[in-house]
User: What shape does this take?
Amino acid sequence: MADVLVYVLHYEGAFNKNSLGAVSEGAARAAEVGGSCHAVVVGGEDLTIELCRTLGGYGATKVFRAGGPEGLAQPVVDVMANVIDEHGHRYALFGGGLLGFEIGAGLAARRQAGVTMEVTAVRAEGGELVAERPILGDSQISVSRYRGELGIIIGRINAFEIRSAPGSDLAEVVDVEVDYSPWSNRAKMVTRGEQRGADVDIEGADILVAGGRGLGKAEGFELMERLAKAFGGNTAVAATRAVVDAGWYPYAAQIGQTGKTVSPKLYLAAGISGAIQHKVGMQGSENIVAINKDANAPIFEFADLGVVGDLNKIVPKLIDAIQAKKDS
Amino acid sequence: MKICVLVKEVPDAAVEKRIDPSTGRMDRSGEKNLNPYDTHAIEAAMQLREGGAIEVDEIVAVTMGPESAVRALHKAVSLGADRSIHLTDSSLAGSDVAATGYALARALTKESPDLVLLGQQSDDGECYTIGAVVADHLQMPSLTQVIKMDVEDDALRCERQAEYGYDTVQVELPAVISVGDAINEPRYPSLKAIMGAKKKPLDTVSATDVGIDPALVGTDGSRVVCGDFHAPPAKATGQIIEDEDTTETVAKVVAWLDERKLI
Assistant: This one.
């Protein structure tokens, strides 16, 4: 028996997409190693029985539900350790996201388990699950095999596709009572999910022009907005985590791990180095153009067209040239 | 209060990183430097000390690694740490994330810090999780990728970006906090601080000194075995234009976009 326990994150009564993908993945892989896929949820009253049972539609047969604080990792470690003690799951699986990294690592410490993060594929091999993880700037794939009683697999953002489980019924919901560790009670959520900056919509755009730290200052986004205007039509401006945290652009426009995932027809990145956390949110774009003055920037590894140069020289001329092309 | 800052020596960003096929571990020869993310953690400690909201008696840099890792400690001290601890032992080589976090936690236990700070990730292993491992062993509350940290009584009010926007979390001390690179702009060390770094106290400790169970560390004590290193499916490499004549560059970009009907 090699059961898989998947942590499912939720917010305001809706499950996280990466978590749902992880349930689908967990169900498919568990079936290959003769086990079942179970889900675990921790939170408040928005975790209704009806909502939890819908996880059956992605392949979970049981959902362990515990009342507890939301958005914090350590209480979930307590719940998962408790559920695994009782039921002996062989693997714990997480969809991509910050909380999954924290919970998975805490659980690894608690259970002396192996943990692999940023996993892009899980395979069954001789009755065991192995996890593939890109390393060294995605230039190599490393394969993790687990020793011991528990293996922990933390996916990369968007690594696991959401699939409906054919013929699956609604999942059984099992309530669990957990005595939280004293240290789990020593962190308290004050406010969660605060949106900072204007509410802009970038997910439906055909063309995204995105700016990063290479813009140099907040005013650099004026240039990006002019570029978006030159493209016209359904074009929007997007940003990296670094510049959003710096307050240069609204959070709603952020691409990547803790932001949006997009796949426009054109993604034009200016002054963006292309860190993994950014790449995972935009690598599905049909055409990727990158302008960066650092010829060694990782973004050139996956751009379809890369321009090595000073964006402050290039973008203004590009705006004029696009305008001229459209006027001709 | 006492702050311990976890630091790590990583290959310099300019060095091409590779896996040594004979050992399956990262080839760590070549130029090395202090993990750039860790400089934010040291700066955060310095700002707590200088901020005056809480009295910081001591900032201690802690690392685990081979002999050469001493240089990362010197750098950490030049950036403001008062002294440093070097956990080094051949039995620790090949430790995975969980084993490394356990070993570091053992070294920290001896220090009984009020706050453990670290950078959000290492520049080489691309691992974001050491903080959470260490916190569970130390039985302390923990938060990662913190970009703002204010002292409030016996707690830290921390802000970070998570799945659904910005979260504000009140974390009681003692705690383990990993900081994001947006939290501050690390200062440059003065020449005097660089010259004086080697004179600051540095304790070298072994696995036995800090009570590490040998069965839980090193290659044999690790629960993950990494192998089968291979290249990912090749992606067609993109076209690169070096901008020399910007008018010409822009014409090429426009033509490229036009061919794909993107204008």
About this structure: Chain A has a mean pLDDT of 96. Chain A touches chain B through 94 residues (CB under 8 Å). Chain A is about 30% helix and 30% strand.
